Model the fold of this input.
Amino acid sequence: MKNQLKLTIAFQSLALLLGALCLLVSCDIQENNDAEPETLVRIFDNDRFNQGFIPIDVKQTSDGGYLILGGSRVDSSDFMGVYVLRADAEGNFVSDRLLPQSFVNPLYNLIQVGQEYYFFCMNNSNLNTRLMRIDEAGQVNEVSELPFSYPLYASPDQGANGFILLQYDRDALETVVHRIDLTGNATSSQGFEIGVGDFNVEIPIFNHLTRRGRQLPFLTGFTDNGTYFFNGFYNYTLSLVFFNFGSNEDVEPGVVQGFRDERAISALVHLSGTSFALSRYSFGSNFILPQVSLDPAGISSSKDLLGNPFPELVPDARILLKRVDVNGQPILLYASETRAKQIILLAYDAATGALLNTRRLGFSNPYEIGSFSATQDGGLVVVGTTFVAGRFPRICLFKLSPEDLQDLVAQ
Done:
């Protein structure tokens, strides 16, 4: 009887303890729900269960929401269709649209001009390039169709009055760079011979275009003295090429040579003069160089650019590099994907080249980097691809607060 009484008292005490603990936890959960989370995370699931969605680029709109340019497989093409998603300031889904299947191959970047956003894609029928415009409500309109097949990459031109477009001319076997104005007219074009060698560039180019293989690090841009550059195939090698529009064809451009598509520069930002920040890959290894001098008029090889190896990145990693401002401090922000299937951010001091900090995003599911962009509050928005149940590609969004970003650059 005594033992039974002791047991009853013990159970009553345990019940009281568990009740108090549940009350404490429920209060804590309520407080956490009422608090604004520093890092917002969203995964945009979709009722099209057998269809995958990937992000191409993201921009914050004037109302604090997010406009995401993406891609999705379509039945009528080997190329990805064009997908546009709108989210509100809290990252909640607002609307989405999969464009008609005649619009395919959406290119990186989503380029903001005023309150409108532009991107390039391709006509699925004749393979011509299309310039598209999106307003802040996510409404998409075609601006113009250009007679350039197989577009590869686009970026803002000098003065934000147009675009730089990189194209593969299959007939001429050339890489061509175009300057395009806001109405879709080509104001300048320059072609660079790919040539015929022991390497068939068409295989990696089409694997890139169809997204059935490795995404190649095509790039375009310009330096502070007006020299243009592109990262693309030249002399049947993926190389960084410096040039001026309208220059004499007898004048050889400045080149940082790669080797086929197996060794190349993977990201690049011009700092000033001959100073650049970049990353490169070589036969599976990845290297980051936050400060390096390049001669835009010379001939060199990317293998001579040593840099810091990063074995935690996936082989031949896709790396994004942008210069962002954090409390007045210029920061070089690299984004990529680790072997552990997380998105990684690496912050470097733009003035000294010193590594400040790293941040990993994503857990449980595998994650791949899509793009990132600065936000109006001094934070950062990052979009990527995650795989729900390990098999369904879905777009994910991370919003880093200004405090998150300050922690990232703190030493």
Helices lie at 2-34, 202-210, 402-409. Residues 2-34 form the longest helix (33 residues). The chain has a mean pLDDT of 90. The radius of gyration is 24 Å.
